[in-house]
């Protein structure tokens, strides 16, 4: 029994040391990228883009659809959502594959700004630190706008304005509920849900978004078809 206790303590010690080293590495990466390219400068570069769409010009349906489908606790968390991450881990364990990501909108924005799709643990820590910095420096509306102006919508469209124009010939403010819910679903997997490539899958994803909106109380059943 004493030997078993020592083994357990030793393993715990190894885990703590490994976690500490990963956090240390992540902090170093965070410092390097934000010192080389400060967060405020990155944000201003995005806002200066020709087709940047501010929060006030985004349809209410689109905003609610994105939050419902991507990060239902976006307005409540501080950049990291332990509940969402826990649900994603459980779902992935049950399915035996990566079916959910668990990253918040703020984490996804941090990744878009600095890290692309790198899944290295130390870089995930750095991503989280950038997310915390974003939440400290900017309000939720600004973070949301930055997010939809930096995500990929398939077909070569890298922001909400270009996606609105490219798919529907409209500005974001002119989107119908149908169009808004369609665009809200694409960034989850752009190559899969691109409506010009896989219209049936894109519609399935749109219906998932609508179901999430109903479950979270944004709309009534049947309000959006």
Describe the structure.
- The protein is mostly helical.
- The chain has a single domain (2-215), classed as Penicillin binding protein transpeptidase fold (Orthogonal Bundle), CATH 1.10.3810.10.
- It is 64% helix and 0% strand.
- It has eleven helices and no strands.
- The longest helix has 35 residues, at 2-36.
Low-confidence stretches: 95-100
**Count of distinct structural domains:** 1
- How big is the Rg? 20 Å
Number of strands: 0
Under the CATH scheme, which architecture would be assigned?
Answer: Orthogonal Bundle
Largest sheet: none
The CATH C-level class name = Mainly Alpha
* Head-to-tail CA distance between termini: 62 Å
CATH topology: Penicillin binding protein transpeptidase fold
Order of helices and strands: HHHHHHHHHHH
Q: What's the average pLDDT?
A: 87
- Provide a count of the helices: 11
Shape: globular
- As a percent range, the share of strand residues is under 5%
Measured as a percent range, the helix fraction is: 55-70%
Find the CATH superfamily: Biosynthetic peptidoglycan transglycosylase-like
